[in-house]
Design a protein that fits this description.
With 579 residues, this protein is of the alpha+beta class. The protein is built from twelve helices and 14 strands. The two termini are 33 Å apart.
């Protein structure tokens, strides 16, 4: 064993091998737990994220810039329109309308002053269709003239609506003449500052989206007595925003598609060599070392990948060489282990054979010696029946010794590869009767053996010595493993091209666990410990059957019995031995 270990160490098989295998196993398990994401996919995902962030930032800036520009332009136009409209209003007439004007049934006024104000609003609207003008006064609630309830407490500031351009277009949108309302914060700013004030935010109501501004209307003394309001439709801003969004989406999709295809192609070019290198490494991991990298010796513009490929090829050669050394060492190890195992099995076989032979020979020899000594000492006084009994014991013992010698010779010749097979023409029926007579005079004295013959069995070309071993072993086993007085059935059937033997007993049977090894040399079933035997009989039977190019099968049930079925060809030829 020391020589084997030294031989394995020379080829490098006993140097940290378990540790390397353990590390490899851990590495594979750790790799299987992680999800693999290719470099090309990472590049595409990274590009998508960067492009989306950059495009979103650009879109936000452009969207905000354009919207602010549109709103700024709209506010500038609204402010200039409001300033021009305020100059064309007759404040004295407006305040006189507030003081003495009457509301009609529609909620407006038929007063010429009311119509004159509306006419001016129409003029402005014709110039700027998005502009909608209206006027209202501002004063203390307890002093205001109104129709209807006050909108605020008596001492608070209140507005009273006068003229609204919507009265000519959609009265439902218009405020009524002398209708009270709550002033907004921007109204206080207009009164306080005496200048145009814009509402800071775009607002929405059920009529649309609006920008608003307010201009003070002053009397002759310069006091702010009323306010001119303007609402400008901001749908234009929304349409601009929608147009931007629509065009931006189209631009985004088209630009992204073009750049994605470009990045896909470029990433494929960049990762092609790396992919080839990875695939080669995976094949090497499975034992395929005949890998060649196409770009390892690139002549034009070599880079780091070419250097890596050359190093990789050198590594492949080193691995291939090491693998050959390991394989050769492993083969040598297997051959040494196999030789050692065969030698061990041969020694065990020899030991078992010597032990078995000495025991099996000693038993019949002891029986012969005992019978002879009894006959020598007490032969004159013994009855004839007793003498026959002792002679029968001697015959049985000699028969056992002879059968054992035949079995040993048969096994020896078979193991040496030189089995003897000499078929000759036999009268099978007569041959079987002779075997039965021998068995009945020997081991079968206490059993009922029934012989059944079917068909014409007078001529068959078989080896009588081998056939005798088959029948003697099967019949002896049937008797040996059956209780005294039980029946053994022996059946011979001669068919057109085959001969069949069937031997059935009512014995201890063969355990299911032992049936697969029943014909192995020296194997005995686990329920045969109390019965003498060598473990050679069935192995010899099988070899003799195979020399005849026949078949042997059996069925058995523990504590019920066993049936062996042997089929041999009617005429056997000399078998060809493999050289």
């Amino acid at each position: 064993m020391g020589n084997i270990n030294r031989g394995l160490q020379k080829v490098g098989l006993l140097h940290n091998q378990p540790k390397r295998n353990q590390q490899t196993t851990i590495g594979h398990a750790d790799q299987n737990q992680r999800t693999f994401v290719g470099l090309r996919l990472k590049l595409l995902l990274g590009f998508s994220m960067v492009f989306s962030v950059v495009f979103a930032g650009a879109f936000y800036w452009f969207y905000t810039f354009t919207t602010e520009k549109a709103v700024s332009r709209l506010r500038a136009e609204m402010k200039s329109t409001l300033a021009g409209a305020a100059k064309g209003i007759n404040v004295t007439e407006l305040m006189a309308l507030y003081t003495t004007g009457k509301r009609n049934s529609a909620g407006f006024s038929d007063d010429p002053r009311f119509r004159h104000q509306l006419a001016w609003f129409e003029t402005v609207h014709s110039i700027r269709p998005q502009a909608w003008l209206y006027t209202y006064t501002v004063g203390n609630a307890k002093n205001n003239r109104r129709i209807g309830k006050s909108a605020v407490a008596p001492n608070q500031l209140e507005i009273i609506y006068l003229v609204d351009l919507w009265a000519n277009y959609n009265p439902a949108k218009s405020v009524r003449f002398l209708e009270a309302g709550v002033p907004a914060a921007v109204t206080y700013q207009v009164v306080k500052q005496g200048a145009i004030v814009e509402a800071p935010d775009i607002y929405k109501d059920k009529w649309g989206t609006w920008l608003s501004a307010f201009a003070p209307l002053k009397d002759a003394s310069g006091k702010v007595v009323a306010v001119l309001g303007i609402d400008v439709q901001a749908d234009y801003v929304l349409s601009v925003q929608k147009a931007i969004r629509d065009k931006v989406w189209i631009s985004f999709i088209s630009t992204y598609a073009v750049l994605f295809i470009l990045v896909y192609i470029v990433s494929g070019v960049l990762t092609r060599h790396l992919t080839e290198l990875t695939e080669s490494a995976e094949l090497i991991a499975t034992g395929h070392y005949d890998q060649t990298l196409s770009f390892a010796h690139q002549r034009w513009f070599p880079d780091e990948m070419n250097t890596l490929a050359q190093v990789f090829e050198v590594m492949i050669d080193s691995i291939r060489t090491r693998e050959c050394l390991i394989r050769e060492g492993k083969q040598a190890e297997d051959e040494m282990r196999r030789a050692l195992q065969e030698e061990k099995e041969l020694n065990e076989l020899k030991s078992r054979f010597v032990s078995m032979a000495s025991h099996e020979f000693r038993t019949p020899l002891t029986a012969i010696r005992t019978a002879i000594e009894i006959l020598e000492r007490f032969g004159d006084a013994a009855s004839e029946e007793k003498k026959r009994e002792y002679f029968q014991r001697i015959r049985t013992a000699l028969q056992n010794i002879n059968q054992l010698m035949e079995d040993v010779l048969t096994i020896g010749k078979a193991e040496a590869g030189k089995p003897e097979f000499h078929p000759t023409w036999l009268d099978l029926e007569e041959f079987c009767h002779e075997i039965l007579e021998e068995i009945r005079l020997g081991v079968g004295t206490n059993h009922v053996i029934t012989f059944i013959n079917q068909g014409d069995c007078q001529q068959a070309c078989l080896d009588p010595r081998l056939l005798r071993s088959i029948l003697i072993n099967l019949l002896s086993n049937a008797i040996k493993y059956s209780p005294r007085g039980s029946a053994v059935r022996f059946e011979l059937a001669c068919l057109d091209q085959a001969i069949e033997f069937e031997i059935q007993d009512q014995g201890i049977g063969i355990p299911l666990e032992d049936q697969s090894m029943l014909f192995a040399l020296f194997h005995r079933a686990r329920n045969t410990d109390t019965v003498r035997g060598t473990g050679l009989g069935l192995a010899i039977v099988k070899q003799c059957v195979e020399l005849h190019q026949g078949q042997i099968t059996f069925t058995s049930q523990e504590n019920v019995g066993t049936t062996f079925h042997v089929q041999l060809p009617l005429s056997s030829e000399e078998p060809r031995l493999e050289e």
